[in-house]
Design a protein that fits this description.
The complex is a heterodimer of chains A (about 300) and B (about 450).
Chain A: H1 2-23, H2 30-42, H3 47-64, H4 72-83, E1 98-103, H5 110-123, E2 128-131, H6 140-151, E3 155-156, H7 164-177, E4 182-185, H8 195-211, E5 218-224, H9 230-242, E6 246-250, H10 260-268, E7 272-276, E8 284-286, H11 289-297
Helix pairs in contact in A: 1-2, 1-11, 2-3, 3-4, 4-11, 5-6, 7-8, 9-10
Chain B: H1 7-17, H2 26-42, H3 47-61, H4 72-88, E1 102-107, H5 114-127, E2 132-137, H6 144-155, E3 159-160, H7 168-181, E4 186-191, H8 199-212, E5 216-222, H9 229-240, E6 244-248, H10 258-266, E7 270-274, E8 282-284, H11 287-295, H12 300-310, H13 313-324, H14 330-342, H15 346-352, H16 356-363, H17 367-382, H18 386-390, H19 397-407, H20 411-432
Parallel strand pairs in B: 1-4, 1-5, 2-3, 2-4, 5-6, 6-7
Antiparallel strand pairs in B: 7-8
Classes of the chains: A alpha/beta (about 300), B alpha/beta (about 450).
Amino acid sequence: MGSLRQGLAKTRQAFFGRIAQALGNTEIDEDTWDDVEAMLIQADVGVPTTMKLIENVKNRVAREGITRTDHLDEALKAEMLKLLERPTPMNVSGRPLSIVMIVGVNGSGKTTTIGKLARRMQLNNRKTIIAAGDTFRAAAIEQVQIWGERAGVPVIAGKPGMDPGAIVYDATEAAYARKAEILIVDTAGRLHSNFNLMEELKKIRSVMGKVVEGAPHETLLVLDGTTGQNALNQAKKFQEAVEVTGLIVTKLDSSAKGGMIFAIQEELGLPIHYIGIGETIYDLIPFDPDRFIESLFENNGEEE
Amino acid sequence: MPIFENLSERLQDVFTQLGSKGKLTEEDVNTALREVRIALLEADVSLSVVKDFVKRVRERAVGAEVTRSLRPAEMVIKIVNEELIDTLGEAGRLNLSGPSPRVIMLVGLQGSGKTTTGAKLSLHLRRDNRKPFLIAADTYRPAAVDQLVTLAKQIDIPYYEEGTSAPPPDIVKRGLQKAKDAGATVVIVDTAGRLQIDESLMAELKAIKELSDPAEIILVADAMTGQEAVNIADGFNRQIGLTGLILTKVDGDARGGAAISMREVTGVPIKFLATGEKLDAFEVFYPDRLASRILGMGDMMTLIEQAEALYDEKEARRLQERMMKNEFTLDDFLDQMNKIKRMGSIGRILDMVPGMGKLRSQFDFNDQEAQDRMKRVEAIILSMTRQERRKPELLNGSRRRRIAAGSGTTVQEVNQLMKQFREMKKMMKQLSKGKMPNFPGLPGM
């Protein structure tokens, strides 16, 4: 937990830490709600979700007869928690080989996440292989190979410009030969609004289904935690194209708050499996709604 | 497609309930500004920046004359747009004066697109008849050096790298010497992605800045950035001093409100937009285009400008007087129709007006159909005598048959037009009492 605390320390002091301060212990009035609204908006929660949260908190406050601001953060936490689901375990067991497909926009942190994820799998005694499916971006193959080394996980790679479907095919063969249980497939970053590239992603996905029954068993969208309201659109478009099954939110060690996950969970119901909180291979931790929200509220005394 | 209802639609909804008075009242403006605020927040403009912006718009808008050509909603949009363009500032140019080679440092968060931007920028500079040179100073991200080298080779730009073994400031120092020897005029330094709150990595940037005396220190920022944009831009600017911004991934569907936040908080100009996967997908920044995008308005501003140009104040007043006196004739009708025609095809107009996509399907006509219909209406009116055009009540059965034959249409069509014309006159009478119109209805719409 220490690392999440550290990772989110800057986050909470920036805004949510201020909730306690701003609220203090006074009568709840219009200013109070303006403060709460400002904090949620600044955490990238988005206007519609913010309005809804405030509405819900107001109802709760009325129902429970809360009049003082020092009880307000509990009410707010409770309502925020209602929007976040506890993730179910990933669907990566119960068959000889499970394929995890990693997708996302450019620069969201897919390759780094794959390195961290592979290490986690390996630590759980799940023999893992990585397919270097980003054959487009310059040096993406080298990048994932370095992460593979760090994680102690073999990387199956082709040449730049090769058909990613062919890599998937090769990697599957290799996985069976080496009796690996999990194959993580990297894909090139692409903007969800790029029709051709999204079509290509669908093709890569269908290759997986042909080589392993029911694959990909998990399709994880890697979202940059500093992204604003466009995150919801990203999630929608990727879900439409390749049936995303879950999310990993990266860069939460920044001062960004990652508030867009509320709207995404609410609207798409996608589980968040992990969050990325730093640059080392250890900096990927399971998403825990309680801790996520709790950390946002914590005041660590590092006020600006 | 914007996910959220866009600003102009919001404002139009609000203003349909309000009348059109001579001036925008404070109440009108406040109502509109609530919508402006939400639209900006949904476009990811940072809250503190939104607050200041709304304040400035309020000052400009209260008491502004509502012209005949623009509805109050359009008036507010116009003011918002102008303020937005002012805020976004001038189209940015690189400042590369001074002894050659001049250094451009690219800085930013992880994944914002610095390395790709470095390649794009060098291509742009070479096309501008300069001699660019790249230095790979990102020794942290695995294969970042390989990436830069691959790109540099692709577009045949000279570069310097030392792998990941040396401290970045040392690499830059040696790279600069190489660049000088190679006769480069501009050196682009690709630095590692870092959080603005990472003190040790920010210190490294300061060291590179001190030894290379850069002409430009450009923050490369993801157009999809959320509220965090202010903190990122402010953090980099305070610690190392920025001279410009480059916005990347602009080819996505994010509104790019982060640009306003970053510009506002740093005061430095936006210089380029990176707009695609290809290395030449790199554009000089134009504030007006980005403003429209942030407001989610398509080419609304173009439409408003055209409407203004075509619909001058004097003529509007003349028409209004005629309406009041019930003198609006078929000639005026024809005139109106031709104006609309001049504004471009109906399809284009519908495309320019946000939210019209819906309307388009509702009316279920295609461009050709609407144009044909307009042509037939024109033919009918032109087949009338001058007198008939001025006094449509003259049109009895035999006159209508003659007009139909003369225009190659049918009596039913003539009847339909006359009915529409009567309805339009009725509507105009109401409008002249203070409810402001859209353009007079098109036949058949």
